[in-house]
Write a structure and sequence with these properties.
- By secondary structure, this protein is of the alpha/beta class.
- It contains eight helices and 21 strands.
- The protein has three domains: 163 residues, FAD/NAD(P)-binding domain; 53 residues, no CATH class; 92 residues, D-Amino Acid Oxidase, Chain A, domain 2, CATH 3.30.9.
- The longest helix has 19 residues.
Amino acid sequence: MESVDCLVVGAGAIGLAAARALAARGREVIVVEATDRIGSGISSRNSEVVHAGLYYPRGSLMARLCVEGRRALYDFCASRHIPHGECGKMIVAASAGEIGELEALRERARGNGVDDVVLLDGAQARALEPGLSCVAALLSPSTGIFDSDAYMRALQGELESLGGVVALKTPALGGAATGERVALDLGGAAPTRLRCKLLVNAAGLAATKLARSVAGLDPALAPRTYLAKGNYFSLVGQKAPFVRLIYPAPVSGGLGVHLTFDLAGAARFGPDVEWVEKEDYVVDPSRAASFYAAIRRYWPDLKDGALQPAFCGLRPKLSPPGAPARDFLILGPGDYGGVGVVSLFGIESPGLTASLAIGEHVADLAQGR
């Protein structure tokens, strides 16, 4: 049986960042990816927003890794010439009853170390964004956007320059943990069993399935995953009059239907929250009706017929519909009785922003920290 030091399953932003961090510490790393390209799962279907760290409970992994990851991500993009922009965003209160939510977000942000947020009244908000309709807004200057595809290519390039390898079309089929090591069965053109000192389960939507398929790992440690589909609609035939990202007050299961831009300036709206039982990447055009209603609360000038189905993504939630949101769940060898496994469950937003910090956290866990 062939052996490797570290085997990472999943070549999305999380898997690549973890692999890069491990390789930078002198570890031998192979990344296996079931599809024919990197970043083809969760990492490819999102709004490409760099989150500041406003929403997450103080002391949570989401809060700490988002703030650390955001700083690292901006530095990484600037030093590698990856397209990005620190455009800022406004979270708006469309009615007086939502102002309390903005005030709570401001205090939560400050508790997370995000000290640049400013609460504006309606007139101050409209002075910055004249097309906006609101009674108040929370301004987050350090929110931005970036090219996630270029970012993941850069991670792959740096991993390979450190001696790491990415193997595409190589699905992980299950395996067994014996002693401190794991043997994993790999499919593809040349099926094999590979033994490793460290297995990093960064399989995204399939993370729970993979964890439960490795004999010798307690299946109770692998939580159930619930799928929240997020649909996006593009703006066509009308130009959005905003220079910042515009978010409503948060809703159950997500951050509300918000306006973001790509780096070319094209506007899109989403995601909403649609709970599904299985993977489904078709946007139902009829969902546009709820989008128009949500968007017009902060942009009443949105024209009929201006929304066109764009794409959708899936978020792996650890809580069912209606239940309080749960934090990232990242388990290490200490949780597995000394077996060399790090598992990442429920890595949804702000996972992309936090990915570099998550990678370092994985590498720390692998060293017993």
